[in-house]
Amino acid sequence: MVNFSRWRALGALLLCLLLILSAGAGGGTTIPLTPQEEAALYSLKNLSPVDLTPKRVKVEVYIPNVSETAAFIRLWSKVWPRVQSFYARMNVFPEQVPGQLRPGPLTPAQRLRLEVLPQKEWLARTFQAFNVAPPFQLRFLKVCENKYAFAHLPLSTVHFSYQRFAQAVLSSEPGSEPANVTWLANLIIHELGHLFSLYHAHEFTNDPVQEYLPDGRTPNFMSHHLTGDGDMGFVEFQKLMVHSYLSGGKVFQQLRLVEFDPLRHLDLLKRHNGFKEPPADRPPRTAPKAFGDYTEDDDDDDDD
Ligand SMILES: [Zn+2]
After folding, report:
1. Average confidence (pLDDT) over 55-70
2. How far is the CA of 45 from the centre of ligand 1 (A)?
3. pLDDT higher for 302 or 234?
4. In a domain, 33, yes or no
């Protein structure tokens, strides 16, 4: 249901826009490290020692009580425990706090925010978060066509458009509620993964994170295979990254130095770990209901 080649072209456009915008906003500040220090900091070979004690993270949940979100509000009490039980497997304990219209004191790795919005508000907040000025907004709209959520690490916030996701992915057949709950939970688990520092499973071909676990059938939660029948999983490396980030360890320092910009982070990880991107013409692995959600989904081949 998603046209991948078009998607990639649009992703490339988005990336160009982001590069222009971030350059204009002075986002390319130099890292105050020697080349050797930079290489050591961004190497993921030796993350240890990582503090693996239980981590508690507050998540403000803001859901305006309007008709577009009514169905989500009904499902939420079943969705959130699924999100919590997934992260409990990682010894991470997100705690929900009620969100107001205005964000509370958000802090990376400590207090995050999930906004479940009607489509119009979602677009408005997405433009704002990416700092997309009106001349670019029409083109940016195209980029948003197949996307339902964006995780903004610098803002510690996820914006999610429920209704479009429901129309495109969820089923309204009788008896479909359990699957809908699972897929909603999977999407939120995935987005929180970005706010916990993680990048996509399909980003590199030679890193420890592949789209499926070694059993060959359990999707990694940072892949786009979020609408399967079974559980999603993670690899130990991701658990280490998350704990390192949430405890203010090496991964947190990596991101702090690039002002929590995931694209710059990814580029440094690639450079200092010898990670390789998949070939540009790689056919996507079958994902019956794949959905995009993040800025660098489509730019694997275009970010040099
Ligand atoms: Zn994502």
Report:
1. 96
2. 23
3. 234
4. yes
Q: How far is the CA of 149 from the centre of ligand 1 (A)?
A: 8
Ligand 1 centroid to residue 114 C-alpha, Å: 14
At residue 296, the pLDDT reads: 39
Q: 146 vs 211, which has greater pLDDT?
A: 211
pLDDT band at residue 265 under the 50/70/90 scheme: very high
Question: What percentage of the chain exceeds 90 in pLDDT?
Answer: 68
In a domain, 66, yes or no: yes
Residue 207: the pLDDT is: 96
The alpha carbon of 61 and the centre of ligand 1 are apart by a number of angstroms equal to 19
Distance in Å, CA 30 to ligand 1 centroid: 27
Q: Which amino acid is at 240?
A: L
Cα(175) to centroid(ligand 1), Å: 28
- Tell me if 118 is assigned to some domain: yes
pTM: 0.84
At 127 the pLDDT is 87
In the reported structure, the alpha carbon of residue 289 is separated from the centroid of ligand 1 by a whole-number distance in angstroms of 14
Q: What is the mean pLDDT of the chain?
A: 85
Amino acid at residue number 102? R
C-alpha 279 to ligand 1 mean position (Å): 19
Domain of 114 in residue numbering reads as 4-46+57-273
Does some domain include residue 144? yes
Total domain count, the chain: 1
Which amino acid belongs to residue 37? E
